[in-house]
Design brief:
With 127 residues, the protein is mainly beta. β3 and β4 form a beta hairpin. 1% of the residues are buried.
Length: 127
């Protein structure tokens, strides 16, 4: 689809298309009433603003949850330990189940099943 430009306002009221030199460029205000172009970032970068009045930049992406340093091994769990805070709960061993325990730093622990019927009852009926 071809892009066509039409003059819709006075010269002083429009942003010059010459600011856009490559596909992916972004127009931002470098000052009040002053448009500027931010060239596109590279693969994996995210746009970062640095707060009010600062020039946006491209920065390395945080990687998201899947690449967070909290993950060390298959089966690790991130457990909320407070407001905006998490700790790792390492994977349990085979046959253990996850149990809430306020005495633990993470509030949870892996425990041994002593009565499989009681565990099924607790899961199904909340008892």
């Amino acid at each position: 689809m071809a892009v066509t430009w039409k003059k819709l306002a006075k010269e002083d009221d429009v942003i010059a298309k010459s600011l856009l030199t490559e596909k992916g460029d972004i127009i931002y205000a470098s000052d009040v009433g002053t448009p500027a172009a931010l060239p596109h970032g590279t693969d994996g970068q995210v746009l970062t603003t640095h707060g009010h009045g600062n020039t946006p930049t491209w920065a390395a992406g945080g990687g998201g949850v899947a690449t967070d340093a909290i993950w060390d091994a298959k089966g690790d769990l991130a457990v909320g330990t407070g407001a905006n805070t998490a700790s790792k709960l390492a994977v349990g061993t085979d046959g253990k189940y996850l149990k809430a325990d306020s005495g633990e730093a993470t509030g949870m622990k892996w425990d041994t099943v002593t009565d499989p019927n009681a565990l099924i009852w607790a899961i199904v009926f909340g008892g």
